[in-house]
Amino acid sequence: MYIQKIHIENFRLLKNVDIVLDKSLTLIVGKNNTGKTSVAHLLQSIINEKKNLSFNDYPLECRKQLYEALEKYWAGQLKNTEIKNQIEETKV
């Protein structure tokens, strides 16, 4: 099987990223703190069929929405079925 492209949303430092893979070789290079390790970790999780992500895999900038949704839920302003609509999901 050949994977041509990977689309990542809301995983660690990767907010909305498309990675196009070449059949012969793909190198992932960049400055520190740009997401190279995040890509490697995600690929490892996919290869090992790891289905669960940890809380640390959820981007820092999206956590504010999560905390606000939980506060509304605890205050009785939001139903548990509505929380998912208030936060951004991680997608691969």
From TrEMBL:
Ranges for domain Endonuclease GajA/Old nuclease/RecF-like AAA come to 1-71
Q: What top-level branch of life does the organism fall under?
A: Bacteria
Task: Quote the InterPro entries the UniProt record gives.
Answer: AAA_GajA/Old/RecF-like (IPR041685), Bact_Antivir_Def_Nuclease (IPR051396), P-loop_NTPase (IPR027417)
* Cross-referenced Pfam families: AAA_15
Q: Know the name of this protein?
A: AAA family ATPase
Organism encoding this protein: Flavonifractor plautii
Lineage summary: Bacteria, Bacillati, Bacillota, Clostridia, Eubacteriales
